[in-house]
Hints:
This protein is about 50% helix and about 5% strand. It is of the alpha/beta class.
Amino acid sequence: MERFWHFIFLVLNYLWRVFRVLWVCRVATVSAVGGGLLIARVAQARDLFADTGLDRPQWALFYGLLLAWAWLLHAMARRALQFDDWVPDSHRPGGLSDDDRARLQARFLGIAIWIPRLLGLSIFCVVAWALWQTRLTLLPAVELKQAADAVAWILVQLIATAVVATIYAVTVLFARDVRARLTGRRKQEALLDGAQSMLLLLFHPVRNWQTLRSIFSSRLNQALLLAAVVITLLFVAAVVAPNALSDWFPRVLFLPLLLGGGLLLLGEIASLSHRYATPLLLCFFVVGGVLGYLQQNYNDVRFVPAAATSATSGTRHELTIDEAVARWKADNCRSASDCPRPIVIAGAGGASRAGFFTASVIGAMIDAGAANPALGLGDVRSRIFALSTVSGSSVGAVMMRAAWMDALERKDLGRPPCTDQQTTAWFRSEAARSPDRSAQAGSWRDCFQKLLAGDFLSPVFVGLAYRDIFPLGYRLDRSGLLEQSFERWYREITGAPVAACGTQDNSGLCRRVGHMPDRSDPKVRGDWIPLLFINGTSVATGRRIIVSDVRIGCKGQKGRLLDYAYDYRELRDPSIRVTYDDCLPVSPAPPIPGDPEGQAIDMRLSTAAMMSARFPLISTQGVIRDINGKIVDSVVDGGYFENDGLATAADIVRELRGRDLQPVVIRIVNEPDEAFDVNRRLSNPTPVDGEVESPRPPLPKSEERSVFDVYTSIGRALYATRSGHEDGHLAYLRETLKGPLVRIGVDTIDLSKPGPSQAAASLFCRSPVKKDTAMDIVSMSWWMSQPVQAYLDAQLCRPQIERLMCVLQLKAGEAHDKCDVAKPT
């Protein structure tokens, strides 16, 4: 028994020494473990390795940066252990004695040698794991050429990872011995070598010149100095030209910089913490938070002055719902009694995935209507009354609005503004590595996809890694950088000079929300452009904040729309909410006040998208101030209220039906459909709107308890309330609509089920497959790999497009149940 307890003691003592060493080099440990978990476990990070748009030199640069990250992990962990200050005895008068040093070196030496080495090596292991997992995700989708190409390239990456890992291992195993033999100098100790803080020495460089000269005679310290200079230059670049930095190191190339860029500075600060017995790292981040607080306008929503009036930019800030309906009827109805069904789009959230898929569906409908007028789809763009969008689909909505307006400005609404820009970001580009190059001239679907295929993730990385941790008076936070990336990408794809919006710019995404083209009479025919209803969430109340071309007013009052949401304009302009009460039952209604002269009261399309697409961590909250500088509210992602845009869509439908129109709602969701578990069924499925649904929700998925679930369960519950809101608003929409509702979603392309008709497939399906095609994980991020883009595009080969085309052909008054073909299973 005594031997058993002695064995337990030895094990616990060994584990204590391991954790002690990990604590001493905690910055490197956090970088390796945190970065490793991010790469290995987060689907969005793994999707970066499926990028077929980077060329060979860029991938070579990535592996060079990966090697640098691993080497820095090893070097900074080794340097932390070479300080004496982490040992309590070193703080005695006279410092650490030779005997104590020798004793501690003997006790910790093996662990102190191998932990830094393993921390660096772990990076290559997790990259290899992520590559393999990405390959497994793509294998069921290799019928898509882009996925097959990525799978083949991943095998090359695995070999490259092994080669670079071998270079790292040889370097860290033998470098100190070889260097000592070649130079004839003493080999540096791996532990307790009396290292000195560079921060303290550089604070008085003249006084410490001899010491610095001696330190920098070491090749290791020379390399660390070079790394420090490079990282400092990157920091300066992030401040001065953040978009340029994200252009130089796009997507996966920035990953090592994001996860390893702070090693040098934070490692030195952590080592000083031992000297001064003070949590300096915690103080560093607290100071960063205080700086963010002191910069009162750092996270503000960007408002701009009104733009000059033009043929595509009217004087009126917002329309009333009556005016909007009158304009739509003038542009679409042959007579008062002969109107097509107006289309209302409800777009779900989901970052670039949502924007890309929403725009793909709408672009495909427009192309289909133009390609075969005899089908009776009509001018789909003109039929779309409004888009109610959330988060990523709001980015898609503003991209489409900008493209339509640019086409209108050129007086050619049938031709999209996208140029033949050979961007490898888009999966069908002629410049892409994949042989699938079937882009069509004049296709709105292609144009919209190019606009949403951009790399919007790298600027967010820059903000996260360099700007927002320790803000020093920069003009834009990471949300502002994301806005600018939308603006710059739109200009790049449309052939304009690549730059963010200037104050007076009023083209592309620099156009102001609202200000629809002026009409002397709303009943006179013009060129209809679909209206925007962009949904954000109020931090103060949890209600909707809506950015729209239409005045948000009182439900039930003639000419007004809603009373359960905030209009972004009334939050900005006190005169709207103070001197104008549009809920008073007076007739006629008082006129809406004009914009206050000389004030930044307008909002760009790019900013409107960010009013809805502000998911925490990735984006900051948006602080809303009125024109007097007073904080009125803050806005976060619209998905917190409800992620599918159904509530606002139902409000729009109510107003259309109240004006003798019979709308159709197209609900576009991008979250892959969850596999149905019959064991969780609480009711039998029934056909509803062409889909098979259960009247009651399934039983919740049971989960085992997790660490700290006493606290994490609160956040999980708050986040999950979205699904409860969604169910209630879907029921409200159906009760209000009393007509056709089409759901277009993302699911396995199952060839065992009946596919769409040849007529539907010829118009919508561009990537027919011969085998079942699936992706278990469809990445949701501000960038999507080309295989994910191809998979989303291929969703228009599924049977759901048959019902979509049938509903689009329905005339007002025609029964829509003929399009409902779903049967319960």
